Amino acid sequence: MTTPLQTFPEQVATHQYLVAFFYAFATVGVMLGVAAIILIDAGLVKRQNLIDTIVQKVLCTFISGAAFMVVGYGIWNWQYYQAFGVPDSLSAAIKDWSIFGNNLLHFSQNIDPKAVAEADTFQIFSVFFFAFAGLTAVLIQGAGLERLKAGANYITSAVVGAIVVPVAAYLTYGSASPLTNAGLHDFVGAYCLYMVVGVWAVVLAWRLGPRHGGVSAPGHFSLLTVGVLLLLLAIPMFVIGCGFLVPEAGYFGPTLATSGLGIVFTNVFMSFAGGALTGGFLAYRMRKPAFILLGPVAGYVSCSALFDVAMPWQAFAIALAGPFILAGGERLLKAAGIDEPKVAPLALGPSIYSVLMAGIVGAGVPQGGFFGIKEGAFAFQHAAVSFGMQVLGLVVIVALTAVTAFIVTYLIEKTVGLRVSHEQEVRGLDPSIWQVSEVPSRELAGLTPAPEAA
Question: Cα separation of 214 and 145, whole Å?
Fold first, then answer.
C-alpha cells in the first residue's frame, strides 16, 4: 500500500494555472516555428531531395530535444542553484531537473512550494527548452541541405541538444547566468540560439563543401512562402514566453530587466515591419523575391536580444538594417566559397548586430540576480547592461561554438562520414535512400515510394 503524498494547494491556484498556460502557449509557438523551418527548407531543395530533407529535419528535432532533457535543463538551472547557495549546486540541479530528476517525477501539487514555487511553470519550461533545442538542431541541419548524411546530422543534433545548447544557455541566458549576472543582456536567445546556429552553420558548410551543380533557385516557392508565413505566426507566440510573467508584479525579461508584455509584443511586429521594408527594397533591387519573405525574419533576428529594453520606434529602426546584413553575409560566404546562402547569413550577422545594439539601447538598464535576493552577488537587479559585456559574450560564444563545431564535425567526417556519396547527390537522396524516383504531388500526399526505373 502506497503512502499518499502531501498536497500543496498553492501550487494549483487559479493564477498558477494561468501562468502555466501562458508558457504552454509559448512552447507550442516554438514547435510551430520548427514546423515552419521544415517547410522553408523543403521549399529550398530540389524535388529529388524533398522527402529526405523533411525526414532528417523531423528526426533531428526530437533527437536534440530528447538529448537536452537528459541533463540539459539541470545544467541551465545550475545558475539559480548557485544564486541561492545550494551545496554541490550542479549535481543538485541535475538531480532535481533531469528527466529522471525529483521535480520531473512528481505532480506539481505534490512539490513543496518552498523548494519549487510555481512547479507547473518550471516543468513546462523544461519542454520550452526541449523545443528550442530541437529548433537549434533543425536550423543547423539547414546548412547541409542536399548533401549532409543523415547519421552525421543525427549525431550533431544529439551533441547540440545534450551539450551545446545547455552550456551556451547557462553562460548567457537567465538572470543568474555567469555573463548575464555581470551585465550581458539577451532576450530571445541571440547568443545561445541564433549565434550558435550561425557559427555552426558556417563550420558545417565549410567542411561539407559546395553542392554539386551549385545552389539552385527555390524548388518549391509555395512551400517556402507557407513556411515563412507560419514562422511569422510562431515568432510572437514564443517570444513572449522568453520573459518572466509575475502576477501583480509585472513582466520581466529573462535577465530580470523590467519590461512590459505589450511593448515586447509590439516590438516583434515593428521588427517585422522594418525588415519587410528593406527586404522588399532588396528583392526588387536584386531581383530575388525570397528577400521579401526573409526580410521580416532578418528584422526579427536583428532585434532578438533587445525586445524587452527597446521602444517600438527603436525596434523598427534597428530592424531596417537586418536585410542588408543578411545580403552582406550571403555575399561574404559566397566569396569565401562556402555554400551556405540562408542559415548563417540569416542567423549570424543579424544576431551579432542585435547583441551590440542591445548594449547601446539598453546601456545602464538594471538586471541580474533573482527575485527575493536582496544583497550579495545575486541581488535582484544588482547589475546593469553594458556594451563591454555584450562584446565579451560575443567573443565567448563565437569561439566556443567554432571550436566545438569543428571538433564534432571533423570527428564525424573521419568516422561515419559527413557527406553523401557523389552518386547519391547527383541522383538525389529520395531515389537513392527512399527508393522514390520522383516526387509528384500525388505521391507526396501518401508518401508512397514510386518504383525505381529499370
Answer: 12
Assessment of whether the complete model's pTM goes beyond 0.90:
yes
- Grid cell in block for residue 13: 491556484
Distance, CA of 144 to CA of 206 (rounded, Å): 10
Euclidean distance between CA atoms 1 and 285, whole angstroms: 75
**Structural domain 12-441, CATH architecture:** Orthogonal Bundle (1.10)
Name residues whose C-beta falls within 8 Å of residue 57's C-beta, 6 or more positions apart in sequence. Answer: 37, 38, 41, 138, 141, 142
Helix extents (H) in 142-216 = 150-159, 165-172, 196-208
How many angstroms separate the CA atoms of 279 and 302, rounded?
13
pLDDT-based confidence at residue 12 (cuts at 50, 70, 90)? confident
User: Residues 68, 129: contact at Cβ < 8 Å?
Assistant: yes
Enter the DSSP assignment of 379: -
pLDDT in tens, 307-341: 999 999 999 999 999 999 999 999 999 999 999 98
Domain residue ranges of the chain, discontinuous segments joined by + = 12-441
Q: Which helix (H) or strand (E) holds 251?
A: strand 250-252
Name the grid cell of 354.
542585435
Burial 421-440 (b: 16+ CB within 10 A, else e): eeebbeebbbbbbbebbebe
When pLDDT is cut at 50, 70 and 90, the band that residue 211 belongs to is confident
- What value does the mean pLDDT take over residues 32-42? 96
d(CA 416, CA 412): 6
